[in-house]
Amino acid sequence: MLLSSLLLLLSSQSVFAFASPPQAPRPPAMVAAAATGAGALAPAAELHGALVAYDGDAQLKARIESALRVLEDAFRVFGGDAVYASFNGGKDACVILHLLRAARHARALKAGASPTPRLVFFDASDDFDEVRRFVADTCDAVAAAGDVVVEPMALDVGFVAGLEDLVARSKPRPLAFVLGTRRGDPNCGDQKAFEPSSDWMPPFMRVNPILDWTYGDVWAFLRAFDLPYCALYDGGYTSLGSVPTTSRNPALLGDGGAYKPAHLLEDWSLERAGRVSKKKPSD
User: Fold this and answer.
1) pLDDT band with cut points at 50, 70 and 90 for residue 209
2) Superfamily of domain 44-236
3) Backbone dihedral region of 189: left (phi > 0), alpha (psi from -120 to 50 degrees) or beta?
């Protein structure tokens, strides 16, 4: 394992989508079933080619293009070794990880050199074992492919303490931290694609490439491009936090007592129906 310990639980966790939204259409002519587990990842060049060539749902296409521009700008402005991505194994984190891999390839084509972003996960001992294994396997896979450098953190180090360490290591260069924050996230506020950290946190630039994505966009993206995600989502979980604060979403309970997979949630405003909210400092 490349991870001696794992790293991060933050707003890249799944979040509330807009109340009573229209369901995003599934992209046509793409894969019919989502992959689970880390498995073998397609090379970043192949993924980037598929994203650029995508001609399915117009809303998803536009959001993919916008996200790639944001990430390429982060590489251009901050430099690859100062771009960090939060990866906690959640569905939003999976989206930004693979967008980051594709954006890294795109930047290499334009700049003639490959930036090497850092991948971090602030591991917590009360996370699901399935999530921790998925994170470790995924980090091993993307690091082995040369897409990222994995930055290990001690168990239960905490988000703020871990960020202070990362910021200190990045000095004198500013650090850009790529997050899976979406609008409607309890901690989102009025953030933009590039947003300085709150004053109670260490100084860094938040990078939010999927800020305007919906719950439906996230699942359409993962399923359209056959990208791996934690298998818990196939068992009725729609938002993953710690074990004590997370349960299956009651909105996915079927008539026979079995839970439907997360991508079948019809009312996206119920995304966090299986979560116990925890108060966090406001922006």
Assistant:
1) very high
2) HUPs (3.40.50.620)
3) left
